[in-house]
């Protein structure tokens, strides 16, 4: 299995690139943001709880997202691998993911981390808010809070995977195609050398 973590701050292009990557590689896309938004739309107790945090730009508690990912891993058998998007977002989530993947004997293959400047992030998120219908993209205070959460809690996840030499930084500015090609080049190289 090839298990990829696409990492980066809010607005770094994880969603856009994930769509293209799953089309090319056939990986199963697991976006905790998308999973949480479907819980909200279905008005489930989990969604109602998660929304309180998401509306403020705060991370949803670890146990909620870890439970969601655990079920998603169980539901998807016989696939070439997973693409994790927006997860793990804390070192505790990273440790939980490693344990879950241990059971499948299919560790994280690589973390590709998109690098984008802060001004560019805010600009992209405000533009996305005009069409995405996402309430957390329309308020600049909430956008800034999400970026602060990224620095305070999520950036450390890259350090976690760095200790296993699994992190590759990818320049996340340029055209969508240019960035996709940078990601694909790294994936192709690693897929070719991965011991199955
Ligand atoms: P973005 O990357 O633009 O912030 P996402 O769709 O990944 O968008 O996430 C939206 C919101 O969902 C986050 O601000 C956070 O509140 C919540 N969320 C998503 N994934 C996680 C996670 N792994 N842990 C905690 N909260 C999460």
Poorly predicted runs = none
User: Roughly how much helix do the residues carry, as a percent range?
Assistant: 55-70%
Quickly count the helices: 8
Task: Give the amount of beta strand, in percent.
Answer: 5-15%
Name of the CATH first level: Alpha Beta
Total number of beta strands: 5
Main traits of this protein?
196 residues, alpha/beta, Rossmann fold
Task: Record the SSE blueprint.
Layout: E1 3-7, H1 14-25, E2 28-31, H2 32-41, H3 45-54, H4 62-75, E3 82-85, H5 91-103, E4 108-115, H6 118-132, H7 140-162, E5 167-171, H8 176-193
The structure holds adenosine-5'-diphosphate (ADP).
The site of adenosine-5'-diphosphate (ADP) has 18 residues, from helix 2 and helix 3.
Structure description:
With 196 residues, this protein is of the alpha/beta class. The protein has a single domain, classed as P-loop containing nucleotide triphosphate hydrolases (Rossmann fold, 3-Layer(aba) Sandwich). Helices cover 59% and strands 13% of the residues. Strands 2-3-1-4-5 form a five-stranded parallel β-sheet, sandwiched between helices. The model has no long low-confidence stretch (mean pLDDT 96). The structure holds adenosine-5'-diphosphate. Residues 10-11, 32-33, 36, 53-54, 57-60, 65, 86-87, 89, 93, 136, 146 line the site of adenosine-5'-diphosphate (ADP).
